[in-house]
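Quick check before the chapter quiz. The format below is the same one you will see on the exam, so make sure you can read both the input and the output lines.
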Amino acid sequence: MPENQPVYFLGHFTINDRDEYGKYEKGFFPLFSGTEGTFMALDDDGTVLEGSRPNGRTVLLNFPSQESVLDYWDSDDYESIAKHRRAGTTTQAICLISGAEGSTPPEPCTDGKAVRFIAHFTIDDPEAYRVYEKGFFPILSQHGGRFVAYDDSPHMLEGERADGRTVLLEFDSEDALKGWWESAEYRELVAHRHASTTTHCVYYLQMMRVVVED
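Here is the expected output.
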């Protein structure tokens, strides 16, 4: 993989043992701050727009290359805390999504309002899907959305997920995302995606949304 190809770490898991997971959290942020990674989202209640997904926490991180994230993932320091995550959670899937070669990752969000949109689907009819692709980017741009990455074969680190394409977008706010998603022009276009793909899940993440259980 080229050195100038950013990678997005997407983890989805259910916390079963808060005490055990707390040991992981305590060690995670000091360790992560010493890497080349950038925090993008942590959401305990991702908003599902289409399809379904198990409840749980979703974490999205960015690294400048696959080599940099694997250096972190495979390090003894990370393994020393990862055992607590594995003991305290049920992993749905942890994978790496490749950005376009030479692309620039999103700027860090300073106001906490940015939302990240993630779509996971299988393309059943590539020719029909190209009709959707052709109209997609102009509408996205009109509503201030930014394309971040897509990957037809994410690199799996843990867990399992259905085969298919993953698309990652960014919007400045939830209102901006809804303005795009609910617009008449996108509602007309999305019919072509529905007709040419099998949707696994389409959802979006707040930058920080933590659900505290009683």
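If your answer matched, good. The chain is about 35% helix and 35% strand.
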